[in-house]
Amino acid sequence: MSASGSGGGTRTIQVDELARVEGEGSLTIRLEGGRATEVRLGIFEPPRFFEALLRGRSYLEAPDITSRICGICPAAYLMSACYAMEDALGIRVEGALRDLRRLLYFGEWIESHVLHAFLLHVPDFLGYPDAISLAKDPQHGAWVRKSLRMKRAGNAILERLGGREIHPINIRVGGFYRAPAAAELEDLLPELRWGLSTAQAAAEWVSGLRTPDLERDYELVSLRHPDEYPLFGGRLASSAGLDIDVREYERHFVEEQVPHSNALHSRVVGRGACLSGPLARFNLGFDRLSPAVQELARRLGVTPPIRNPFRTLPIRLLEVVHSFEEAIGIIERYAPPAAPFVDAPPRAGVGYGGTEAPRGFLYHRYELDDAGTIVDARIIPPTSRNQLAMEEDFYHLAPQLAALSDEDATRRAEQAVRNHDPCISCATHFLKLRIERA
User: Fold this and answer.
1) Which domain holds residue 112?
2) Counting CB atoms within 10 angstroms of each CB, which of 128, 156, 214, 292 has the fewest?
3) Model confidence at 248: pLDDT above 60
4) How far is it, in rounded angstroms, from Cα 373 to Cα 224?
5) Mean pLDDT for the chain?
6) Same domain, yes or no, for 334 and 391?
């Protein structure tokens, strides 16, 4: 990190490396007094061309190929691809197979949220540069060790259902290549029950951490299911009144290229920036959480409406509690399906699918020919959708940054980026921060 000044009162703050956000990028904020005149969240990581890579491949290959986009949330890509393909092929996956999919997804929510919360974000709230330093704290360090054990519990679900923890290989269009026996899942219950009680205590602990003030009037976007907290299924809703079928997504959202980023910006047609992820799910789907999780949230004072992005930390932990609770229930009720998958013969068509990745709504669309070969593909990840809203955060945060020293302003800006847990790639470095003050 370096700081410099120039004539006319201009100051520049630059952070060369940040290892607590997935991916590579830069942030430039120009301040005049207490006002931001320009904000650029630049993603300079090169494009990966997965959509082009999919063209000419079999519909059966899409889940495995797209899961390689992310090592933190591969199940999200697997599930969104499967649902889009199944939509094109006219099949539905229900009963025990759908329950296994939900279980797989809850394992991913657990491991991803816990990784972000304790290893990437909590250090910001306690003034530590990283989780290693936090782990050495005699008062709070035990939470790092507990978080790693909770994460292992989530990873164990992915391994048991998917064949391995990273990029599972047992998921296919129509279901699974192999469905587990009941005893294979029951072995997971002791750690999941420990994880549930620990996550409840963790939610209580993080809800008491001091957070900066910042109220944002986001248009929040998430799935809305008739009976379940958002995961997959249902319609796409927003806090501004949007209520659409996932098939209508591209009529209501548009992606745009901006000069300073290799990641596209997503906007709501006719309106502007929107935000998906835990803050959106919680505000739009609080009534779909179990009574026990709702009661815990009320006791902790974490209830809708919440518009402060710095408050996403306790929301993520409440989603972890929800995930442990749901995973336990699925395993306790589980009876193996008669077949591990629903047959999905190829045909021409267009399919649409979307699920709630840990970071927000993940959209897939595929066009198939008669042989089931992919003719066209469209994938819109949550970080693309959230990027514009993240930039706009800094226009509202500017008065705070202007009043802080270079070092403290840098920390606050980094913390604001991490509020949204952007998954830019699976690389280690994200942020180069430059604040120019005039």
Assistant:
1) 92-214+308-343
2) 292
3) yes
4) 31
5) 90
6) no
